[in-house]
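Lab channel / #folding
Pinned by the channel admin:
"Please post every new chain as: sequence first, then the C-alpha cells as a reply. Keep commentary short and put observations after the output so the thread stays searchable."

First post following the new format, from NK:
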Amino acid sequence: MPEALDGVRVLDCSQILAGPFCSMLLADMGADVIKVEKPNGGDDTRRMGPPFIGEESVAFLAMNRNKRSVVLNFKDPAGVEALKRLAKDADIVIENYRTGTMERLGLGYEDLKKVNPEIIYCSISGFGRTGPYANRAGFDLVAQGMSGLMSFTGLPGSPPVKVGVPIADMNAGMFATYGILTAYIHKLRKGEGQYLEVSLLEAAIAYTVWESGSYFATGNEPGPLGSSHRLSAPYQALRTRDGHINIGAPNQSNYERFCRALDRVNLIERDEFKDNASRLANREALEIELENTLAEKTSEQWLEVMDKAGVPAGPILTMSEVWADEQVQARDLDVPLEHPTAGTVRNIGLAAKLYGTPGRITEPAPVFAQHTREVLIEAGYTSDEISALVKSGAIAIGK
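Reply from TO:
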C-alpha cells in the first residue's frame, strides 16, 4: 500500500530526542528523512549508554530507524552550501540548535526560504525563541521542573520526582510533528511554507491540564498524589494480597459496579462515599476500605473478577511482562530489524495505525555517514566534487 508521506523529504538537523522523535514519526509514515549529523561522532545519542548493542547505542537505535545519515560540517562553507542544495528539494527542515545558531551559520529560515520559498522550517528549543530564557539551553529534566510536573509527581512528602519517561522531550517531538503536518496541509492548500517553533517547557506545561485548570479555578497549589487521580476517585493503584492493580472507577456507574464486584454494596450507601466529590474529600478513608477487601485475594484473582463485572482494571507490568503480553503481541508492536553492525534490533511498533496508507518500519537506524554519498549524488554532486568535499573536511563518507 502507499504510505501517507511518500515523496515528502525531511532534513533533520536535530539530535538527542525531541527532534529525532519527531522525524522518526514522519519517517514511519513514509517521509524520506535525511538525518544531517555533525562530524566527529554525529548525534550525541550515538555515545549515550550503556547499554550498547555491539558498538551501537541503544538510545540512537531507538530514535533513528527509517532514516538516512549524512554528515555535513557546518563550520565549512562547503558544508553549509551542501545543506542549502539539499533544501532546494526538501519539504521540511527540523533543527534544535541554540537560538540564533542556524541564523549565524546562514541556515536559518529566512536563508533557506530564499532557496526554497515553500520550505517548512521547525525549530525545537528548551524555552522558545522569544522571552528572557530564549538563549538558555534546555533539557527534559529542567523543563519538567520548570513546568510544574515535578511538583505534583510522586508521593505526598516525597522529594521532587520526574516523570519516568522524558515526557517534555517526547511531547515536544509530538507537538513538532503536529505543527509540521498542520503547516504541510496549509502548504498543500495555499502553496505557502512557514516557520514554526516548539519548546520543551511549553510542551511539558501543555500536559498540566488538570493541575493548571484546578489552580486557575481555586488558586490552590496541586501536590503529589501517587497514582491517584486529581479529580476522580477511586482511579488509582490499590494493594491486593500479593501486589497492586489499577482500578478505574471515575464515574458513579463504574464506582457502583466496582463496589458490587467487591461485594461491598455498603460503600455505595455511605454518605462519605456517595458521590465523586465526597469520595475525593474522603479519599484516604476510601482507600483503606477498598484495600482491606482487596487484601483477601491475589491480583490475578481480582482482575478476573473485575473483567467479569465490566470494571476497568489492569495489572502493573514490568518491561518483560509488557513485551510478553498477548495484547501487545497481537498488535504488531515488537518489530525486529537487522542492523549492519548491531545484528537484530527490536523496535517499538507504530502507535498510529492508518488502514488506507499504513506506516512501516523497514530500515534500522543508519550507521554514521552511511548515506552521505548517496544523498549528495541525488542532489546533483559529481563523484569528483564529493571526493573534494571529503578531502576538505566539509563532509564525511560512511565506511
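NK: The longest strand covers residues 32-37.
TO: also worth noting, Residues 5 and 30 are 5 Å apart (CA to CA).
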